């Protein structure tokens, strides 16, 4: 997901109902199915899949299994990018509903980070703290609940060496009130000390503090280097979390997506619905508020309208919302797990509706073709390091 840092450093990244049951289906089957549908000119309605065909997949080369779709918790407790600079009990209850609804709909992969939210800013709460609280409350009602937690290490300039990674992870575990997490990621490459950070990830695995490790906002070269460094210790690099959506396809253009596919690294896509710009909610007359309004301007939303209209049109063929269409588009790219941010239960239920069906190949390419006509949005600069 995106990030914010409060205090000494303050960086901001701009970058109908859900199916109830998800069961397993192999990744390769998706491509074969889409190709078959396209070759045989099957109608759009016949491409729909039963939700029971969806299920968990292995994260990269690790043993960790996660759902094909996750939920991002960037907005939980945040007051500097989301929530119109305020946090209150109503927003807290909405975030809790997003968590519970996600699990109710079979989406159990939740992504957070130590720099999401704050314990000190305008009454906000750290996202890890909130997620830990939600898990604890849910387990009191359902002790056998299944949730896969992913969090991240902030590569701050003053954090040096492998020990800093393990220490930060232990701090995150304390806030989450967990003894281990399923996935620990480097949030972005450091200005220096990256080899030490990678060693720290390996140490975290060997200490039993985490089941799988990954990186975020890593370029092709950094991705290959991290993969090889961990491979020497027999530890797979499970994932690379990057900004990826119809309107931000840099991973396709800079070699990151191809490298993930080659090395067996799962690409986790943050901001998969363009921070709401692809949902049909916004228009030139109704742009998003807050910092997002500086990225998704009236001018940009005007240029975006033909793509949004096509997304709506395609969605009508499947009785799906624009949000569900663009998430399905990403899933159809294969080896991609989108993690849209859910601020409330209604959004979480809608996300689940992206599962259990597939867009046709010609629709996938038509959307990509329209998206290519748009001026690219600004991404997180460290992707180019």
Architecture overview:
The chain has 12 helices and 10 strands. The protein has helices at 27-39, 89-104, 127-141, 161-176, 194-206, 220-231, 250-253, 256-263, 298-318, 322-331, 345-352, 361-372; strands spanning 56-58, 65-67, 70-72, 109-111, 148-153, 181-186, 210-216, 237-243, 266-270, 336-338. Helix 6 links the parallel strand 7 and strand 8. The protein is globular, with a radius of gyration of 20 Å. It has an 8-stranded parallel sheet. It has a two-stranded antiparallel ribbon with strand order 1-2. Helix 2 packs parallel to helix 11 (345-352) and helix 9 (298-318) packs across helix 10. Mean pLDDT is 84; it is low at 3-53. The chain has a single domain, classed as NADP-dependent oxidoreductase domain (TIM Barrel, Alpha-Beta Barrel). Helices cover 38% and strands 12% of the residues. The chain has 385 residues and is an alpha/beta fold.
